[in-house]
Each structure stands twice: as structure tokens, then as C-alpha cells.
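Q: What residues go here?
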């Protein structure tokens, strides 16, 4: 699919990424921060870059409707299978659609919350997706972007080792210019065993950096920082 950057982890190792999803945010800090700023109870939600749908049931538990949008068809199929037996795609207000972030298959002003977690919105270059989110949001709706904090050790240090051209300051300035309020959220990735921790670090980093990360991660947990970025669509005049 054109204009889609392959995800280096979940596209190739969805089973290991499932372990990662279950380990992430073991303290619940991310979910608490998100709900505090934009409670989706009874509202219409779209999860952009939903992957294999890990977060969809959590939204669907209280939202009015939930749409997962995923550009990679194999992951979209896995997301639909996840929903089977709980809330089936197309029924009870939950659905999965194949599309990129810059061409959301949704009507204008049709949702209250656009959520994207470590997907697509990584700073300069994501302007088409920002415009699409603005298009589908109702006035007063919120775009919530959750991204890893590359300035937060130790995980951020490992990120920068693999991405030497990634500048957290430039990313922060980008989102500030685009009207986002960003807050830091600290949480813990907690695994059942060392094997799981090592497998997840192995799909997140190059072999050299993964070895370093494993060596610097005693036990079964890793402290990780995130940036929660929020922008609310004006209810009056459109932002210029």
C-alpha cells in the first residue's frame, strides 16, 4: 500500500508484539492519563494504526462506537479475529477497516476521539494525518497521540542509539507548533519472565542495541516514559 511505512516490529513479529502489549503500562498510568483528559465513555472513537486490535476491546467496553483503522491487511484480519466472540466487527458498535492514517475511511465530523499509540504520528512528516484527524473530529473532539519519550532513560537512550537522527527537541517543537499540549507519563513494562523481556527488546532494537538493553535490564521490568499529546478541535472558529 502506497504511503505506508512498514512497522519494523508488529508487522513481522505479531506474536511477540502481543507479549509487548500485555507488558506495557503495567501500572495503568497511560490509561489513567488518557481517560482523565478525554474520557470516551458513550462517545465515538477511532484508533488509528490499531495493529491487531489490542486496544479496541478496552475502548469498546465503554465507548458508543469504536473503529480500528490499520493499513496492513494481515494485522486488520488479526484484529477482527480478536473481536470475534466479544463484540463482532460491524456489530455492537465496533469495526476494523483497512486504510492509512492520511486517508481515514470516516465521514467528516463523525468521531469524538482520535487515538494513535506509537503509530504514524512521530513528528515532522505526519501533517497529512493531522489534517485527516481534524477532518473526522467533531467540534470539541480530541486527537490523542501517545508516543515513546526518547529523552527518558533507559528506553529513550536505546531508541536514540538506533535512531541517531531522531531529535526529541525537534519533535516537541513540531507538536507545540501544531497546537498540542504534551505531558509526560511514566510507567513500567513488566514481563512474566526474562525470555519474554529479551524477545521484546529483540524486536524493538537492532541486535547490538538489544544486547545492551538486555544487559542493562535486570529482572523482568523496564521503566519507560511516554508523551501524551492532546489537541482539541475548536467548537467555534476553525484554527487558522
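A:
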Amino acid at each position: 500500500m502506497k504511503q505506508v511505512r512498514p512497522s519494523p516490529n508488529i508487522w513481522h513479529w505479531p506474536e511477540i508484539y502481543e507479549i509487548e502489549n500485555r507488558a506495557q503500562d503495567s501500572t495503568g498510568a497511560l490509561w489513567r492519563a488518557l481517560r482523565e483528559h478525554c474520557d470516551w465513555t458513550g462517545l465515538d472513537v477511532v484508533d488509528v494504526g490499531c495493529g491487531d486490535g489490542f486496544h479496541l476491546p478496552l475502548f469498546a467496553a465503554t465507548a458508543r462506537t469504536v473503529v480500528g483503522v490499520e493499513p496492513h491487511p494481515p494485522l486488520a484480519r488479526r484484529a477482527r479475529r480478536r473481536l470475534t466472540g466479544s463484540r463482532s466487527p460491524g456489530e455492537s458498535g465496533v469495526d476494523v477497516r483497512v486504510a492509512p492514517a492520511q486517508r481515514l475511511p470516516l465521514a467528516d465530523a463523525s468521531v469524538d476521539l482520535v487515538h494513535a499509540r506509537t503509530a504514524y504520528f512521530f513528528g515532522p512528516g505526519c501533517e497529512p494525518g493531522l489534517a485527516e484527524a481534524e477532518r473526522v473530529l467533531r467540534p470539541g473532539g480530541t486527537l490523542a497521540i501517545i508516543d515513546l519519550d526518547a529523552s527518558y532513560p533507559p528506553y529513550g537512550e536505546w531508541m536514540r542509539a538506533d535512531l541517531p537522527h531522531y531529535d526529541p527537541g525537534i519533535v516537541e517543537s513540531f507538536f507545540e507548533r501544531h497546537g498540542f499540549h504534551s505531558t509526560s507519563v511514566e510507567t513500567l513494562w513488566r514481563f512474566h519472565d526474562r525470555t519474554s523481556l529479551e524477545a521484546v527488546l529483540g524486536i524493538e532494537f537492532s541486535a547490538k542495541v538489544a544486547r545492551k538493553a538486555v544487559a542493562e535490564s535486570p529482572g523482568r521490568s523496564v521503566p519507560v516514559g511516554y508523551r501524551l499529546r492532546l489537541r482539541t478541535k475548536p467548537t467555534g472558529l476553525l484554527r487558522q
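A: Context that may help when evaluating the design: The chain is about 35% helix and 25% strand. The mean pLDDT is 93.
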